[in-house]
Amino acid sequence: MTSTRTSAVRVSGLEKSFDDLHVLRGVDLEVAPGSIFALLGSNGAGKTTLVRILSTLLRADAGSASVAGYDVATQAADVRASISLTGQFAAVDELLSGRENLVLVANLRHLKDPGAIADDLLARFSLTDAGSRKASTYSGGMRRRLDIAMSLIGDPPVIFLDEPTTGLDPQARLEVWDVVKELAGQGTTVLLTTQYLDEAEQLADRIAILHEGRIIADGTLAELKQLLPPAEIEYVEKQPTLEEIFLAVVGTESKGSR
Ligand SMILES: Nc1ncnc2c1ncn2[C@@H]1O[C@H](COP(=O)(O)OP(=O)(O)OP(=O)(O)O)[C@@H](O)[C@H]1O
Ligand SMILES: [Mg+2]
What we know:
By secondary structure, this protein is of the alpha/beta class. The protein is 33% helix and 24% strand. It is globular, with a radius of gyration of 19 Å.
């Protein structure tokens, strides 16, 4: 469907071991530019490992990967200039205000007019009113929005979000979802990892499930739903939920079968 030439992220036969733990055993995936791609997997499946390889923090043992057209192994500097990475642990400095955090990053990246960049991002992330307050006074959702805003400084075409909403309350999750949708709407490619199946269902154009070192399912939600027959007919035909598909493909018995 997507031509290889135009993929924002392309991964082929990627392998990674830690000592004798063979975490990635030949991962293949492709992310189209401007789309949201969700990588699902259980704890320890290797999601963070894959994201770290794609963001050049870690080297693969075998296989290849490119981001924004650059090879992660041989063109690491170009990859780094094309991405941002937001991990589970926010890079926000608690002692600084939201605005000061943004100005700091813009300065670190040697951008012109850091103040204007900060004000623009505060407005985009609905943080203008809180901009002059210390980040330590922010709610979890505000902090995560600030963290994502910081990662956007310099307009990277590809952004990696490793579990962007873990630990957030439902309202804060919705706020982050809005931000992610807006990013993709503006043409940024988003690869996110999540353990929340509804998050993938809500956000992603394409969903992949990483299990035992490989991508065992990859497609649009509609395509993944075709992996399972529709549930029994009551009054209307019920489509399987992503949770049911996930449990079926990773081979775990679904609790409370209908
Ligand atoms: N630097 C490392 N050294 C040794 N083992 C590691 C290292 N990094 C990750 N691992 C192991 O590799 C496996 C995959 O870890 P990874 O963090 O990629 O999983 P994950 O899918 O991100 O899990 P989670 O959902 O808990 O974040 C785990 O068993 C982990 O313990
Ligand atoms: Mg992880």
